[in-house]
Amino acid sequence: MRKQIGGRIAIAVAALSAATLLGSGAAAAAPVPVRALDTWALSDDIGRCGIVRIPMTVGLTSGWPGAEAYILLSPEFYGPDLTHQVTQCLIAVTVHWENLDTGVTGSRTVYPMDSRENRVYQTSGNAASVASGLGRVRFWLSTETPHVSAPPIEAVISL
């Protein structure tokens, strides 16, 4: 059992290292929606949930007072054998932002789950609305577990 877990961790670390090489670079500010490169993380239960790929898309909110940006997270969990598994696994993901025009910063932690079988949930349940303010805004993700963050993306948030 101990050797199995050690092997799983070694595979996960190798996958995260590969993601580091693929996830380097920066993007200029663009009108929304903007899609980031993927953040990769170890789940908090690697034996059951493995590693997770966390795509992020930034868009505009509509009808959310005090919130301008809409962050859609669509995590996919890959089991210890690195095959995709639709699971009931969750991961704490913190969305960070910095308004490059006003200097306002903030963060919000959300708990998205793998929801590829339920497209309605994937487009609404894994979202975070944030009060980033208007203008050029930089967004990035982090997790409480070991992870490789995608480079920050910059989006132009406007009415």
TrEMBL record:
Name the source's superkingdom: Bacteria
Keywords for the protein's UniProt record, in alphabetical order: Signal
Give the signal peptide range: 1-29
From the Swiss-Prot or TrEMBL record, give the protein name: Secreted protein
Originating species? Prescottella agglutinans
Instruction: Output the lineage of the source organism.
Output: Bacteria, Bacillati, Actinomycetota, Actinomycetes, Mycobacteriales
